[in-house]
Each structure stands twice: as C-alpha cells, then as structure tokens.
C-alpha cells in the first residue's frame, strides 16, 4: 500500500520561528560596523536639516525637544537595524512649515497631522497600494525630487553661512561677520577642509605600492608617500570633527550656556488633541505633507537605496509600514512627526 506523500505546501510554509530567526540574523548583519569612523561621520549627515527645523519648532511652538530627540533616536536605531542602510528620519517639512507660518497651528495640530499622515502611510503599506504607487511613479520624477531637494539644501546651507539666523522666527537676522568664532572665514576654512578630506579619493594601488616599496624607484616611493597621505586624509571623520569644533566654539562664545542644561529625559505625557486640532491638522498639515511623504520618504528612499545598496531589502511596502507605525506611536507623546 502506497504511503501518503507529505504535504509539501505545509513543509514550505514559513513559520513564525523561521521569520524570527531570519529577522534576528538580518539585524545582526546590519549592526556590523565595517568602519566605525565612517559610520560616525555619516551620522552627522542629517543634522544640517534636522537641527534647524527642530530648533525653530521648539522655540516658536514649544515642541517637546527631549521627547522628540528620544523618539527620533529610537527611530534611527530601529530603521538602521531593520534595513542596514542610512534611512533619512527627518521632520515632516510641510507640517513644520505650516506650524512655523501659522500662529494657530500648535503642538496638537502638529501631532494630529503626523498621526493622520502616519495612518494613511500604514494603510497604503498594509494593503499593498504603496507597492503599486512605487511601480507607477516614473524614475524621472524621483530623480527630479532628489535634484530639487539637493539644490534646496545647498541653497539653505549657503543662506545659513551668509546670514545670522533667528530660528524662533525662522528668518535671517542680518549678514554674518567675516571674522570671529562664528564668522565667514571660519566657515570657508571648514568647507575647504571637508572638500579636501572627502574629495581626496582612494588609491586602489596603495597596497601594491607598499608591497613593492623596496624594489621601486624614487618616483614610485613618492607615489607611495602620496598614497599614504591620501589614505590618512580619507580616514578622517571630517563632518564629526567640524561638529565637535562647533560645539566647543559654542561654549567658548558663551560659557554660561551650560547653566541652562537640564539633564535627564523629558516627562512623557499624552498630547490632548481637540476636534478642531484634528481638523486643522489634517487640512493644513496632512494634505500638503502626504504627497511629499509618499514620493520622498518612501518612493525616493527605496529607489535611492536600491541604487546605492542593491543587496539590501528595502521595499516600498515595508518602509511605508515602518514610517506609519513610527508616527502612530511617537506623536501621541509630543514627538515631531518624521
């Protein structure tokens, strides 16, 4: 009598334990730091856009800075562990612009807008509609968004260098002096330092030159010395060094700034959102923010991640769900939507 064949469908069905093991293995792989200084240097990348927006909202709308920093840090750790690629966890800029420009758009409206945006992104991800959007959006549109944002960031950086900034009003406050601890000369020197360090490139023949150093002529010895200098320059964490220098100079300019420090996390409290806040948050915040979040925070991020890290799994569905869940958690406690 023939024995019944085992159910192949049942055997091939992944179990929860298999999923957990795969996720754990993937997380461990993503948390391997191949170059600690390079990772630390890259961590400075988002601060140029993150700090001005958060400071402006903190000064003008009493945003809970401590809660925002805690949740943003957690978001970065989670996305880094899950995806293994640099994920831009940035404040939702349309919501931030509405809050800064509208006196009646306060913290409850900001959180309502973030919750609505996060909920819609979660629904789009769970239902698979985000995957459809990802396929329908032409690559030219994504590249246009990336180019426009890059130019916008560059112009904003130039404005911050040339003009003194009043972050409470999100306006420029006059021309910056040439000399001084916050002058244009120092900014130009720092800019040139970053260009020299990051623009030095890599010499792929440096290892071979070192091996053959004893049997090459004077010309090759000079090349070896030059390659060593290049290697040292490219290993410097230039952005981190500039950031540390800025912190030191801030204390030098105003030593009493430390007197205003309060150590310890902020007290967590649930934000009360009225019906009017829900309405204003959705109309003034969610509606203009949603296209930007879909195109930039999900579609553009996934396409760029595929370009730079083709071996990493960064699908539009998972990113949409992740962004949605993050904003459905932190915003209830006053963290800036991202």
Notes on the structure:
By secondary structure, the protein is an all-alpha fold. Helix content is 67%, strand content 3%. The chain contains 15 helices and two strands. The protein has a two-stranded antiparallel sheet. α4 (47-61) runs parallel beside α6 (93-101), α7 (107-126) crosses α14 (275-308) and α7 (107-126) packs antiparallel against α15. Residues 1-5 and 200-216 have low confidence and may be disordered.
**What percentage of residues falls in helices of 4 or more residues?**
55-70%
Cα(first) to Cα(last) distance is 64 Å
Poorly predicted runs: 1-5, 200-216
- Percentage beta strand: under 5%
Within the largest sheet, what's the order of strands? 1-2
Quick structural overview:
The chain has 338 residues and is mostly helical.
Question: Which helices and strands appear, and what pairs or packs with what?
Answer:
Layout: H1 8-12, H2 16-30, H3 36-42, H4 47-61, H5 65-83, H6 93-101, H7 107-126, H8 129-136, H9 139-162, E1 163-166, E2 171-175, H10 184-198, H11 206-211, H12 218-235, H13 238-253, H14 275-308, H15 316-330
Antiparallel strand pairs: 1-2
Helix pairs in contact: 2-5, 4-6, 6-14, 7-14, 7-15, 9-14, 14-15
Task: List its salient traits.
mainly alpha, 2 strands, two-stranded antiparallel ribbon, membrane, 338 residues, 15 helices, transmembrane, disordered N terminus
């Amino acid at each position: 009598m023939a024995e019944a064949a085992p159910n192949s469908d049942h055997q091939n069905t992944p179990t929860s334990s298999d999923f957990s093991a795969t996720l754990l293995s993937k997380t461990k792989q993503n948390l391997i730091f191949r170059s600690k200084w390079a990772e630390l240097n890259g961590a400075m990348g988002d601060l140029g856009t993150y700090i001005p927006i958060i400071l402006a909202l903190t000064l003008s709308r009493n945003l809970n800075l401590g809660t925002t920093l805690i949740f943003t840090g957690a978001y970065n750790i989670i996305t880094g562990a899950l995806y293994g690629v640099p994920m831009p966890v940035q404040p939702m800029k349309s919501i931030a612009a509405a809050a800064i420009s509208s006196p009646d758009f306060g913290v409850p409206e900001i959180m309502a807008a973030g919750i609505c945006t996060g909920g819609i992104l979660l629904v789009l991800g769970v239902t698979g509609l985000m995957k459809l959007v990802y396929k329908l959006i032409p690559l030219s549109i994504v590249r246009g968004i990336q180019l426009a944002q890059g130019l916008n960031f560059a112009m904003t950086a130039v404005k911050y260098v040339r003009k003194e900034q009043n972050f409470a009003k999100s306006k420029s406050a006059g021309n910056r002096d040439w000399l001084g601890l916050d002058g244009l000369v120092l900014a130009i020197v720092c800019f040139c330092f970053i260009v020299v360090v990051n623009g030095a490139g890599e010499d792929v023949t440096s290892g071979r030159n070192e091996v053959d150093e004893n049997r090459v002529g004077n010309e090759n010895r000079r090349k070896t010395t030059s390659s060593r200098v290049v290697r040292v320059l490219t290993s410097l964490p230039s952005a981190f060094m500039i950031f540390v220098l800025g912190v030191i100079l801030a204390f030098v300019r105003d030593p009493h700034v430390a007197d205003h420090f309060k150590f310890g996390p902020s007290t967590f409290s649930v934000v009360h959102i009225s019906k009017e806040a829900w309405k204003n948050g959705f109309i003034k915040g969610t509606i203009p923010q949603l296209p930007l979040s879909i195109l930039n925070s999900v579609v553009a991020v996934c396409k760029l991640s595929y370009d730079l890290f083709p071996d990493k799994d960064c699908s539009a569905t998972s990113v949409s769900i992740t962004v949605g869940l993050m904003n459905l958690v932190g915003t209830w406690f006053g963290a800036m939507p991202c």
